[in-house]
Amino acid sequence: MVMWNDIETTVDYLHFSVVADTVAELIIESNGNPISIGVSGNWGAGKSSMVKMIGESLKKNDSEKAEKEKNYVFLEFNAWLYQGYDDARTALLQVVADKLNDEVKKRSSLKDTVVEKTKNFAKRINWLQLTKLLVPLTVGFIPGAAPAGAIASLIGSVTNSLKNRDNAEENSNSINSAIETILPEFEGIIKEESSKSMPQQIEQVRKDFEDILKELNITLVVLVDDLDRCLPSTAISTLEAMRLLLFVPRTAFIIAADEQMIRNGVRAHFSNVELTDGLVTSYFDKLIQIPLTVPRLGIPEIKVYIVLLFAELAVKKSKISEETLSEVRKKLGALLGNAWQGGVSKSKIEGVFDKDSLKIMQSNIDTAEQLAGILVTADNIKGNPRLIKRFLNALEIREKVAKLNGITLDSNYLVKMLLFERCASGGAFDFLLKKSAESQDGILEFLCEIEKDLEDGKEYVPPDVTWKSEFVENWLKLPPRFSDIDIRPLLYLSRDRSLSIAAYDELSPEAQEILAALIQIKSGTMITNLIEKIKEIGDKESEVVLNRIIRQGRSNQWELNTLYAALHIIEAFPELGGKLISALGEISPKARKPSFIPPLKDKEWAMEMLKQWKEDSETPKSVKNAIVVQERRN
What we know:
Blueprint: H1 17-29, E1 35-40, H2 47-63, E2 72-78, H3 79-82, H4 88-106, H5 112-137, H6 149-163, H7 168-182, H8 190-194, H9 198-216, E3 219-225, H10 232-245, E4 251-256, H11 259-269, H12 277-287, E5 290-293, H13 299-316, H14 322-337, H15 346-350, H16 355-377, H17 385-404, H18 411-423, H19 426-438, H20 445-455, H21 470-477, H22 488-493, H23 509-519, H24 528-536, H25 538-555, H26 560-572, H27 577-584, H28 597-600, H29 607-615, H30 621-633
Parallel strand pairs: 1-4, 1-5, 2-3, 3-4
Helix pairs in contact: 1-2, 4-5, 4-10, 5-6, 5-9, 6-7, 10-11, 11-12, 13-14, 13-16, 13-17, 17-18, 19-25, 23-25, 24-26, 25-26, 29-30
């Protein structure tokens, strides 16, 4: 099956190139002065594509020059790829050192001093890594690092020695051997570096970095992506490494990240420090000179985007040519450039296609016209390019499944059902299932009166509390009418909602509000209104919220506030208690807390776990006593 991929691109379907070219021009005009640009936007808004387009614009400018006059060297760094495998701080520095070394090797006419300085720069980076790791090793703890080569060999020897303290001679030989191996990596700098303080070492790294860029006569453009996918520790480590190299002449850092996610990461990373909003903002603003937000898409952009996606699919299916797609893309881009003068109408879009291509694309243009408005306004999509692409992929899958099952349905019905699945709450979808089950023939009679009233301009009266939303009201107004058909085939095709366009662990706005409220919960507090709101989003999305809370519990060693947050969800949906029990079961016996017992004592789903804790010899005595006290009270 031919579908749309979900990766960043330099092919512009969203009219981003105008912004990308402007940013590239800023970097060019900086004329070697350091610059840092933050490209912010929500998940799926197109940050990665924007960053790549900025890079492409700079490369295009450079490609028009003679080889000796080329100004820019590009380095792409994806922090997410290093998460769990390496310390992000040293990883970024190592990648920069490797890139400079590669550039030096390309230039045979360089002075020996430049070559030597580049080698020493790499050695200093390794030295920083070594000194950072050896101190934690003396207490048996390595903070999320996975060094390589001779450094890894030395660290492995020290670690094994700590584990096998009885074999003193063997340990000594192993460590000495590792030291002999590692010495060449620091030849020429060990004596110098060991006599310097850490600030002096860092200053030397910056000076070497600046000198190398000057000698190479290049501006290093570092494209940092996917920071907002990282755990707070990885995100902040990457930012800290960037801080070491930021504002050195001949550097340009372009950072793609959801600004709010980074701010949250700063708070999480420095959770033991009281941070005001001003301090968090100050931390971010000191790193980013020029903040840039990915433009939010309006109805004209969404229309064009959908049409271009379908045109791309038509190329893959050999229905239209690559040349036609390229020409159409240019013409539609020009339409968007003038959209402020009068929008982008259906007839204008049709006008960019030749007669033969228009026959192939007509139904797709109709779909774009039908969908654009609601995809922009629906809270769960809000014109998000990635979600729109996933929506269309889900539609392709649904049509294929329908065909294989011999189900004949107008695609407009499939589109409308997919919209409901994606944008309505879980509770609203469950209500639709319930009403369908009550019907003998699959005809939803309750919809007939509602749809007729809305067509007559009457006020919308929700049939259930879960249907009390602006989206559901607007969805009901969309053609075609669902009251005219047997809805069972549509629900059959929807039975596996894992075909969903939603990202794993993605939350609706309602669920996001609930999650934010739960995070603010204080221990000992159970809020009835919040529990009722949790019931409204349904059990499926509540489970996703619970996953988030459990993840937080793992990271903060299950603070009591986090346990109470999880209990709100279980109070709304007791059947999710088993998931919480599994998470609490991951806690090591010695980390079990007496404060857990009072809120869990009356929960039927927790009884077996508390019994196991009481019988476990490794459970702290204070916890066992708390369980006994609660048993006596009962």
